Amino acid sequence: MKSFLLAIETSCDETAAAVFELRRDARSAGELLRSEVVASQITSHQPYGGVVPELASREHLKNLPLVVKDALLKSGVAIDSIKAVSATRGPGLKGCLLVGWEYAKGLAYARGIPLIAVNHLEAHLNSCFLMPNDQQPEFPCLALLVSGGHTSLATWELPNKISVVAQTRDDAAGEAFDKIAALMGYPYPGGPALAAAAAKPDANKHAYEFPIGMADDSSAFSFSGFKTAVARKIAELSTLDAKERIDVAASAQEAIVEALLVKVDSAVQKNKVKSLLLTGGVAANGRLREKLAHFAAAKQLKFCVPAAKWCTDNAAMVGAAGLAAYQRDYAMYEQWLSGQRADSCLGPDVSFEVSAAARWPLGEPLHGQR
Ligand code: KG4
Ligand code: ZN
User: Which atom of ligand 1 lies at the shortest distance from residue 313's CA?
Assistant: First the structure.
């Protein structure tokens, strides 16, 4: 009988579940993906201009059982065939994480199956393994993770050593997109709308010069000075006409992309890597993809980026990270499943005391983050 893994994601405002076949011999997680469901809460948070944590937790509580049921139905897999569960334990909004994490704990305990704790940021990196074989990363990699909550650049070596090279001192790249978009009147999250305006054929990306934060520090990103400069320009122009709107959008986008590229370039000079990975919600940005692809080609690096649906939050990436952990520590999981369960009833790696972690830096081990 085939075995399957259920993956759960509830760290921010997407409630998501995915079902994977649990097999060791597959070359990519994508080959094993049987179903995925994402319930977005964007319309619930839009009136408030950002994610309202308490509202998000309540939505997860309401949606998660339905999303899991839907993912099982779509995969045609019965709950009895689920032999492992991987769930996002952190980082993220504590109340949101708790919904998915405690649900996963209950499921693992009730069914006597192992629970695999997944770091949400590591899951974003693993989203590249959902892609077809010829697009899979080759190690060692340099990974740029850009989302609404995070901007990190990290090296990634086998078996699973992730070392952060640079991260943001203030806003995340997605936040910078969203805040500029909000100033221009686009509803939350405005990143995609700003990108669409910037992509208009007559938009001039050199119309305005915006600063690159921390240009001389290869270990930090910063978008606060940039944001102030754009806000000033918008105020100075007063009511933006149609051409000014697309020019501000294109110039602001270009400055964000350039700020990211500068740090990637410096990291590539310092670290010997084979692939360049681009992940997280902002990886859906066409201009960023284009510039990084061009850069990677010039440096003879393999450029890996997930399909747009796997850039923003989803459970398939949580399953990919869970499968990778399962395959890495296969002997440990087999031993636990064969009855040698030591003192843990939630799998070899997780005990009841392990709570959801609002803070869990990329590359740090499971325990000790609370
Ligand atoms: O990874 P994600 O779904 O959530 C977090 O973990 O934060 O990323 C969402 C972020 C938002 O800030 C959104 O505006 C941004 O990704 N985003 C984009 C684009 N699509 C999504 N930013 C720029 N261009 C896009 N095409
Ligand atoms: Zn995310």
Answer: 3
